[in-house]
Amino acid sequence: MGVGDSEITIPKHSRQRPTAAGFALRAAIWLLLAVFVLYPIARLFLALFLPDGQSGGAFDAIARLADAFADRYTRRATLNSLLLASSVGLCGTALGFLFAFAVTRLGIPRIAKAFFSSVTTLAFVSPPFTGSVALTIVLGPGGLLPTFFGLPDVSIYGFPGTLLAETLTYFPLAFLTLATVLAAIDPTLEDAARGLGAPEGRVFRTVTLPLCIPGLANAFLLLFAESLADFATPLVMAGKTFPVLPTQIYLQITGMYDLRGGAILASVLLAPALAVFVAQRRWVGVRSYVTVTGKGIGAPRHTRSGILARGAILGTITVVTFFVVLLYATIVASSFVKVLGIDNSFTLDNYRFVFTSGLNSIADTLLIAVSAAIPGTALAVCIALLARRGGWCGAALEFVSLANAVFPGTVLGIAWLIAFNSGPIVLTGTMGILVALCVFRYDATGIRTTLAALRQIDPALEEASLSLGASRLTTLRRVTLPLVLPAVKAGMRSLFTVSMTAISAVIFLVSVNWSLLTVRILQCMTELMFAEAAAFSVVLVGIVFAASACIDLLFRFLCPER
Amino acid sequence: MFLRRVLGRGLMLAAIAVLFASASQAADTLNVYTIWSERYATEVFRAFTKDTGIDVRFLRFSSGELLARLIGEKANPQVDVFFGGIADAFVAGKKEGLFERYVPRGAEAIPAKYRDPDGYWTGVAMDPICFMVNASFLKKNGLDAPASWQDLLHPAYQKGLLMADARTSGTAVSRIFSLVKAMGEDEAFAYQKKLDGNVRQYTESGAGGALPIARGQAAGGIFFVVDALEMQQKGYDVAISYPKEGVVYGVEAMGLIRGARQPELAKKFLDWAASPRMQQIYEAQKINLIPTHPEVRIQNPALDMSGVNLLDLDIEWSGANRKRLVDRWVSEILK
């Protein structure tokens, strides 16, 4: 690979005796993961495989699994899911990379940078239900775009529509990961290549891109898992010709009243997730991606890329931006009129409804998202720090912390309901269970972003600090943490956003005491009150943007020297 | 310094969050799950609170999610009553042992076909299947509102119909039941194969196709009348009609949860809800459901079912055949 110092290709962390504090931290994290990741999944499978304590249930479950896979439709759904998840992983990572590259490397004006960043935030909020309705209004047969291009009968339902919708929803996760990785690449490495006479294209291919591999791998894994767990997008977009597994599972449980059958199918999803996880670890492997060396930190220079490349990148992201803005414009327009397209008279009634009958749910949702984002971010940093050390222990930690993210929300929600409604730990009906669910299901982005950033740091930096007599704790807080702070911030933003917009698992854990914004949107949709649902969505988007600004302030407040 | 500051300030913020979070809980309220819309449920429970002084807290879900939730909570139930769920869900839940047998006082006045013979649930409303077609689509194609299942096979509807997916939607299951009852099973599936050519998409929820049809992005579909009337009340120009061969109707029921924490309050509610008083709320509050209690009279002609060919559905039969018919629909129509 020829990147970085050859002497430090394998970041070997000083093998000191683990301190008591370090040991306690590790034990605490494993305990939390055991309670909130392994225990609910175990309870679910216990309830499914051994109903009423009969051991015959296990054979029955295996027989049902075999039956399901003897069915051509299920096999097709499984293959479709893998195809979709890989495509979303590739396209989303590529798109996220383009956005990240444009924002960090192309030297576009500050205002344009801020604009493109907000577009990714906007796309990521993607309020449930209204987002897909907007997509149908814009892209469905007879929708705005097909009509505009004179093709009113073209249908995008099926693979292309699902891929498009999922890529647009999840590429911001790749953007968050890759923007921090790209920003942290030491420009002197690229300058060295230029100094040796390499043209820009070659610098990009042989220096910039390889250095992004941990970021790319983490982004791909994240998107793959998200797509594998997403049943809602295919439900709306996949139509009848493109069945996928998560949707089949959802249909089995909520449509056929067959909780057992659905959850047995869901256990299959762990296999591809594990396979991709192992593959990404192989790919990222033991190479060094160290670019934060402490030597010659200069401001990242802008690529003097060719006009063609520049135009292609900016063109692509402009088209995507236009599309995202069009989607949200539909939602905003719907929220200010009586019935979009039928009775376009201006009204504020929808917002009056939101701020009277919906005020409770706004407050509850905000409280839960804030309560999840803070401990969740701390947890993500701890897990990333421990997992960074590699070894089977680190790998296990990394995978377990990801496991919750690959189950479709419906299955996970039911697992949590079974686990925490009876038995030794009873949490249902409390706010705690909603907060815990957000933390342990949606922390994956924070962990992966921080991990990618940690792999960029030269261990020599930390060793220098240690050899100067600083303790490991001091090194951590004075050297390591400040360097990964942008990644931590990105993780916190995404955790907050998903906590505000999550629905599939949460629906099984909301209680009469806690009402949530997304549940209200769902209610509006079932009552065919699209205008009110749109107004709720606009408020949701507003809150996420306000919160992003607050998180920026928070990080300045916690760490003013930066 | 860095870490201490982060920890110190972080803890400060966490403490504030915890203070906010310690909300109190009230006792002596009835907890209910429902699949009725927020507006419908609110009207009913508000009237109950006004009559009895008992507060009601409720959550609403789709029937599949609700049933999954009840099964998950079986060891420690969180609610007392399941109100306004379609009878199918009760039949499935009865088998899972989710309900307690209770016949509300005065429920004998409700015809037996709306009640569980074993007394586990009581039907308080009914809701037939109907056709809903965009009115300007009809005008453009010079068609009348469909009056027979065969009318939907007209080539003008090609790729213009939105139907609900039988795996997720009670509407779709009732549509299939209607066809089976009206034509016989094999004939019904042969018809659906022909109809499939005119279907653009099978939507997840029963009402999911209503908005595109009302907006003119699709021609028409088959809905529960409650959803179709809701679109009309919103101001969309849609035509509602019924096939002469007949349709089945959904029964909206209620029942007592086994292991309820407040069984006495729950029984009080069920007694109240089985009375004509509750079903009179429907018309007064624009709840587009048809009462099951013979003493409740309707004025709204749209809810008058005397001219509609309603096919009686044995709920035990539908419970026993539901899965088989949906599986057959998936393997013969969807694939």
Fold and architecture overview:
Chain A has 25 helices and 2 strands. With 562 residues, chain A is mostly helical. Chain A has a two-stranded antiparallel ribbon with strand order 1-2. Chain A is globular. Chain A starts with 19 loop residues before the first helix and ends with a helix. Chain B is globular, with a radius of gyration of 23 Å. Chain B contains 12 helices and 11 strands. In chain B, strands 1, 2, 3, 4, 5, 6, 7, 8, 9, 10 and 11 form an 11-stranded mixed beta sheet that branches. The interface between A and B is large, with 66 and 70 residues.
List the helices and strands and how they pair.
The complex is a heterodimer of chains A (562) and B (335).
Chain A: H1 20-49, H2 56-70, H3 72-105, H4 110-125, H5 130-139, H6 144-148, H7 159-184, H8 187-195, H9 200-211, H10 213-229, H11 232-237, H12 245-255, H13 259-267, H14 270-284, H15 307-336, E1 337-339, E2 343-346, H16 349-356, H17 359-388, H18 391-406, H19 409-421, H20 431-442, H21 444-454, H22 459-467, H23 472-501, H24 517-526, H25 530-558
Antiparallel strand pairs in A: 1-2
Chain B: H1 2-21, E1 29-34, H2 38-52, E2 55-60, H3 63-72, E3 81-86, H4 87-95, E4 99-100, E5 122-134, H5 135-140, E6 161-164, H6 170-183, H7 185-196, E7 199-203, H8 210-215, E8 220-224, H9 225-234, E9 238-241, E10 249-257, H10 263-273, H11 276-284, E11 290-291, H12 315-334
Parallel strand pairs in B: 1-2, 1-3, 6-7, 6-8
Antiparallel strand pairs in B: 3-10, 4-10, 5-8, 5-9, 5-10, 5-11
